[in-house]
Amino acid sequence: MRDEGVLEKLKLENARAGDNFDMNVGGFTGDQAGSPVRIKGRILFFGPKWSFENMAAIEFGENNLLIITPTYVQITSPESLRFDPVNPDNYKVFVVKSRVHFRRGFDETGYARTILVVDAPGPWFGTTRLDALNYEYGPISRLYPFDGQ
Description:
With 149 residues, the protein is mainly beta. Helices cover 9% and strands 22% of the residues. The chain has 2 domains: 113 residues, no CATH class; 31 residues, no CATH class.
């Protein structure tokens, strides 16, 4: 999840692995993001990773993990989620915001036994509902496969 504000607060608090975590996360990038969600748990990792000054991995609930980054990140394989002390093999379900980039690492390799594709309600940026987008130079009714041909 992208939330640079949370990462900045953790930095100002000199947070480190093992510290308790109790903050609202997300819900600020637009209506499609929904409302912020309160996460109460423990910091598993906080520090530099993936060329970011800081990112965080928060354990919460029963074997749940939330990874917080300062910008959007495309997760393309389970290996990108493998860093000390995180091991993706310890989790049964992954929620990844991606339409296709994840498929090579999770689907084609057989790592994911089941894939459920979901989308935010409404015609938001990045939607799979192409008919909701304004095609100024190519009316959707004349483009394959929407032209009925």
